[in-house]
């Protein structure tokens, strides 16, 4: 009887400790697997845009809708600058570009670019980008979601010609960005430095 009481006195605290530690263990495993630790905090307008674009979590659906991979995983390990745009250290990821969506109007449901992060051999949707060539913008920086697109800047070689000056806005709809939803780079996004498709940037594209 005495032994049974002693065993229970150890088992109950141990069980409580296991239950308390479980969320931390799960978070650590998710972080190790490359999953975001928390969903980004989004306005109602951004949540609506994300819902409309959730189908592109499957990159094959994106390809069927006219988004084509630019292959390179764009990384700014030391940050950089492109004209008036300053990039903080972090990565962008792999851009899928849909030229059919390029025009003088910006639509929340039709971004010109989808951005994926390579995670364990798969492409994980992390952001969308609204993009407008300088020539199409006719001298006025476009806006969407109450934000003015950054630029104008040169085209991002090697994924587009340098001569393609444009404005753009990255919106991290699926993966939290520690620096903000509209920041161009995301320190939580990783490009494999050993992968042949990774393009690490210096001070410019």
Describe this structure in words.
- This protein has 205 residues and is an alpha+beta fold.
- It has two domains: 1-32; 44-200, no CATH class.
- Helix content is 25%, strand content 29%.
- It has four helices and eleven strands.
- The strands form three sheets. The protein has a seven-stranded mixed beta sheet with strand order 9-10-6-5-4-1-11.
- The longest helix is centred in the N-terminal third of the chain and has 31 residues, at 2-32.
- The N and C termini lie far apart (74 Å).
Features:
alpha+beta, single chain, 205 residues, disordered N terminus, two-stranded antiparallel sheet, 29% strand, 7-stranded mixed beta sheet, 2 domains
What would you report as the Rg, rounded to the nearest angstrom? 21 Å
Strand order of the largest sheet: 9-10-6-5-4-1-11
Could you state the oligomeric state of the chains shown? single chain
Number of strands: 11
End-to-end distance: 74 Å
Q: Are there runs of 5+ residues with pLDDT below 50, and where?
A: 1-37
Structural class: alpha+beta
The count of domains is 2
Portion of residues in beta strands equals 25-35%
In this structure, how is the largest beta sheet organized?
A: 7 strands, mixed
What's the average pLDDT?
82
**Helix and strand sequence:** HHHEEEEEEHEEEEE
- Principal-axes geometry comes out as globular
User: How many alpha or pi helices?
Assistant: 4
- Helical proportion, percent range: 10-25%
């Amino acid at each position: 009887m005495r032994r049974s009481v002693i065993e229970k006195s150890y088992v109950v605290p141990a069980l409580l400790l296991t239950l308390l530690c479980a969320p931390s263990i799960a978070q650590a495993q998710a972080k190790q697997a490359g999953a975001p630790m928390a969903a980004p905090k989004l306005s109602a307008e951004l949540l609506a845009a994300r819902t409309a674009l959730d189908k592109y979590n499957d990159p094959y659906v994106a390809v069927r809708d006219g988004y084509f991979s630019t292959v390179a995983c764009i990384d700014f390990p030391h940050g950089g600058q492109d004209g008036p745009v300053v990039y903080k250290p972090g990565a962008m990821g792999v851009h899928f570009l849909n030229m059919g969506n390029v025009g003088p109007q910006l639509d929340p449901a039709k971004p010109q670019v989808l951005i994926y992060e390579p995670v364990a051999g798969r492409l994980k949707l992390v952001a969308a980008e609204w993009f407008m060539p300088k020539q199409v913008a006719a001298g006025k920086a476009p806006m969407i979601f109450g934000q003015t697109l950054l630029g104008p800047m040169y085209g991002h070689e090697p994924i587009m010609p340098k001569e393609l000056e444009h404005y753009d806005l990255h919106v991290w709809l699926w993966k939290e960005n520690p620096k903000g939803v509209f920041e161009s780079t995301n320190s939580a996004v990783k490009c494999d430095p050993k992968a042949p498709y990774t393009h690490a940037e210096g001070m410019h594209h």
